[in-house]
Amino acid sequence: MPRDRGQKVVASNRKARHDYLIEDTYEAGLVLTGTEVKSLREGRASLVDGYGFIDGGEAWLDAVHIPEFNQGSWTNHPPRRKRKMLLHKAQILKIANKIKDGGYTLVPLSIYFSDGNAKVEIAVAKGKKEYDKRQALRERQDNREAERAMRSRNNLGE
C-alpha cells in the first residue's frame, strides 16, 4: 500500500506566533492510537490550549484536542490526553535545559502528516509582553501601508 508523499497540514496554531517569541523549532513524531490517526486524517484537531513538557527524559504533548473518530466504537480515544513526542535524546536535553533556565515554554505550532507519518512542529518560545504584541501589530500594519502606497504609486506612474 503506497504512503502519502509530501506534507499535509492538519492543524496550525497561528496564535502562538502572536503570543510567543519563537526561539527554536523542532519536528517530533507522535505516538498515537488508531482512532487518533483516523481523526487527524479527516483534518480534525485543535492546538489552541496545547503545550509540551519534559518529564523523566521524555517529551510529552498535553491538552491538544483530537476529537473522537466518528466511526469509532469502544476503541475510541479520549480527546485530550498526554501524547508522547518522539525526539532524539540530544534534542530533549537541549529543550529541557532551555526550559529549566526559566522564561521558556514548549509550544506546538502545527500537526501535519509527512510521508504518511503524523508529526508535530514544536517551538521553544518565550512569552511576549502586551507592548511587544502591539508593536508587532503596528509594524505589520506599517509595512502593509507602505507596500500599498508603493503599489498605488507604481500604478499611477504606468
TrEMBL record:
Region of interest (Disordered), residue spans: 132-158
UniProt biased composition (Basic and acidic residues): 132-150
UniProt keyword Cytoplasm, yes or no: yes
Matching NCBIfam families: PRK05422.1 (NF003843), smpB (TIGR00086)
Family: Belongs to the SmpB family.
Function in brief: Required for rescue of stalled ribosomes mediated by trans-translation. Binds to transfer-messenger RNA (tmRNA), required for stable association of tmRNA with ribosomes. tmRNA and SmpB together mimic tRNA shape, replacing the anticodon stem-loop with SmpB. tmRNA is encoded by the ssrA gene; the 2 termini fold to resemble tRNA(Ala) and it encodes a 'tag peptide', a short internal open reading frame. During trans-translation Ala-aminoacylated tmRNA acts like a tRNA, entering the A-site of stalled ribosomes, displacing the stalled mRNA.
Name under which the protein is recorded: SsrA-binding protein
